[in-house]
Amino acid sequence: MSRVVQWNALDDAARREMLQRPAQKVGADTATTVASLLDQVRNEGDVALRRLVAEFDGVTLERFEVSESEFEAATACLASSLQGAIVEAAGRIEHFHRAGMGAVHVVQTAPGVTCERMQRPIGRVGLYVPAGSAPLPSTALMLAVPARLAGCRDVVLCTPPRRDGSADPAVLFAAAHCGVRRVFKLGGAQAIGAMAFGSASVPACDKLFGPGNSYVTEAKRQVAARDDGAAIDMPAGPSEVLVIADGGANPVFVAADLLSQAEHGPDSQVILLSDDDGLLARVEIEIARQLVDLPRASIAAQALAASRLIRVGSIEQAFEVSNDYAPEHLILALREPRAWLPRVRAAGSVFLGDWTPEALGDYCSGTNHVLPTGGAARWCSGLSVASFQTSITVQEAEPHGLGAIGPCAMELAAAEGLDAHRLAVSRRLEAMA
Ligand SMILES: NC(=O)c1ccc[n+]([C@@H]2O[C@H](COP(=O)([O-])OP(=O)(O)OC[C@H]3O[C@@H](n4cnc5c(N)ncnc54)[C@H](O)[C@@H]3O)[C@@H](O)[C@H]2O)c1
Ligand SMILES: N[C@H](CO)Cc1c[nH]c[nH+]1
Ligand SMILES: [Zn+2]
């Protein structure tokens, strides 16, 4: 039986239900578990970390930090073709991110009054590279390249250990290639707690970055809300993709793109919107056909249970639905996709046309794959160099500049009843007279 849903036959409540993310349905339990894990790390430091690594990663670790010899062993065992791909991807990610770095903005807002904005690196940053169901060396690049370009002084990276107590060699190679030498074999909420609060082994960081499963994402949310925690980049949880396809789209490609995000985890969400019944039917058949050949078929199948194949009345309506949902990834499998781009109001990253699979952005087109999920694309952007910097404003008034804009400040100060403010200006004007 077809799973295609007619959007125009649904009432508002059914539409909301249709677009609810699987990750949002497990909220309360996850929050309680994570709060307890963070408290343990906060109160007991390394002792709690050792216990939680044993519990969740199934390995006993005396030391969490990766040693120099472990870095060397990782490089030695890594195929040269994979080393080459990591270096190649890093180069393009650097190219794109460097181009987006803040230009110097100096503005004369009045004669004799100069305002500017300057960027400074955040001192100590903590990067999280997932490795629960699959280690993601590409994520190490997406985090470490902009951190290095920003000029961050101390960069700490956590990634879950493997069962044999080692860290994934490709993650280590990618980290080292980007100059990150302080890597800790810690995963999940406990890694986030360690980087937020610090422990005997792990330095406390000012801001934490990186994606992860529901536990990691919830832990980031909780440490960001605590006075003794750390700032965070964004909610970057379980992967999502929304495809808008017209009747001319290739169903094999569309199905492949949907499966590529479904295989990330059981709580990934994949959505297809189309105004064409034939395309929807063909994609549904293709998904079933391609799924059986995937090594991660059972994970993808769980995610597909919460997938949505939706028949919309028009492509215009598809954009309305997509903007409300605010997907992490948006694929426009449309004829003349660029012409539709102005309709996009909320999305983490957009993939134009039939020849831009989302996997390119995941790995090596140059854009960043750490992107907002859970609808956060309505109000926040994916990672960039600016995420690793603060922006400090500077102003300078010459005497004639103070003369030009001082009366404005005095008028507003008087209106607010803040006389000391008014006097800070008027005393200078008097001194100039
Ligand atoms: N939004 C983005 O930019 C982006 C980018 C890449 C990956 N992702 C997402 O990152 C996620 C990676 O997840 P993952 O699981 O593979 O790796 P992960 O490293 O995020 O999580 C693994 C850790 O989860 C913890 N954990 C597992 N089960 C637990 C439980 N029952 N209770 C408490 N803690 C538990 C363990 O400590 C383990 O080390 C995927 O959902 C993927 O879609 C998102
Ligand atoms: N699609 C993920 C972001 O949601 C990123 C990724 C890493 N490796 C493969 N894919
Ligand atoms: Zn992916």
From TrEMBL:
Protein name: Histidinol dehydrogenase
Keyword Electron transport in record: no
Active-site positions on this chain: E328, H329
HAMAP family registered for this protein in UniProt: HisD
Pathway: Amino-acid biosynthesis; L-histidine biosynthesis; L-histidine from 5-phospho-alpha-D-ribose 1-diphosphate: step 9/9
One Pfam family it belongs to: Histidinol_dh
Residue positions binding Zn(2+): Q261, H264, D362, H421
UniProt-annotated binding residues for substrate: S239, Q261, H264, H329, D362, E416, H421
GO molecular function: histidinol dehydrogenase activity
Top class in the EC scheme: oxidoreductase
Native organism: Novilysobacter erysipheiresistens
UniProt KW keywords: Amino-acid biosynthesis, Histidine biosynthesis, Metal-binding, NAD, Oxidoreductase, Zinc
Residues that hold NAD(+) according to the record: Y128, Q190, N213
Role according to the record: Catalyzes the sequential NAD-dependent oxidations of L-histidinol to L-histidinaldehyde and then to L-histidine.
Family that this chain belongs to: Belongs to the histidinol dehydrogenase family.
